[in-house]
Amino acid sequence: MAEDSSSERVLTAQHVVEYPYRRSVGPVLSRFFTALRDGRIEGVRCDDGRVIVPPAEYDPDTGRSTGDMVPVADAGVVTSWCWVAEPLEHHLLDRPFAFALIKLDGADTALLHLVDAYRPENMSTGMRVHATWSGERRGHITDIVCFAPEVAS
Amino acid sequence: MSAADRGGTFGAELGPVTMIDTPLRLEYHVTAGRAQTRYLLGMIDGKFLGERCPKCERVYLPPRGSCPTDGVPTAEVVECGPGGTVTTFCIVNVPFRGQAIQIPYVCAQVLLDNADISFMALIQEIPADEVRMGLRVEAVWNPAEERSPSLESLKWFRPSGEPDAAYESFEEHL
User: Fold this and answer.
1) The domain containing residue B140 runs over which residues?
2) DSSP labels for A18-83?
């Protein structure tokens, strides 16, 4: 075997791993996704009165079952964000966008989604955004295409 | 204003959503590195090329280019096999999507001659219930013109006809 040299050929390969998951959503997320299909966002109320969006079957703090589903607005406030300058193939927008945590009006927790803001200068913590709904909804988080900055009127 | 207010509802007559598809796709660009490149190119010649640690003298197969115990480069290339010993094995009886081999079949750890770590491989040309610890096996390669620098060049292992290896000969490799 030849001694190491910079001209030694090193093999490379493309590997793709795919998991075609289909999962059951349970009673609470079923309500959430069904509401999305209807063009509405619903959270769930905990014992202490907080509204969790997206909803969970159990209170993340106490472990107790959560209560009634509560409609929340499809607009809210960005609490944190991260700019994606070069979207990848699987991202849902083909132009630069932000991943953001969005606290919807009426909710006490934030939802992770995209903000279509074109440029990072248009993003700021505390900015208001509203949902852009898909024209063909099927009961999936992508029924909300993205959120867009609210234009002051 | 929600989409519902705009009259944009769909599937209201459908039942509640009970399932969602969440496919996951991971795309890797893998660089094998020099040691694994030598190992993979060996597949074309029907050879297992391991590498020996200069300190502990153990032979790693497949080689990663360094000894995980001593942290030194493993420069010496050592040809392993084609014979080997089944150390442990499992019989696969469960069908699954994409399964290429008829069940039941045997997946075994094969300790190749000269190597110090075992190698996961398919055992064929023997009924599944006759595979045993210590069974001596040999590599069966695809025809030379069909080989590539890939483990797919190796078809499987089959019994070599030699007497079983004594347990003591592989007990440190379980």
Assistant:
1) 33-173
2) EE--EEE-HHHHHHHHHHHHTT-EEEEE-TTS-EESS--SB-TTT-PBP--EEEE-SEEEEEEEEE
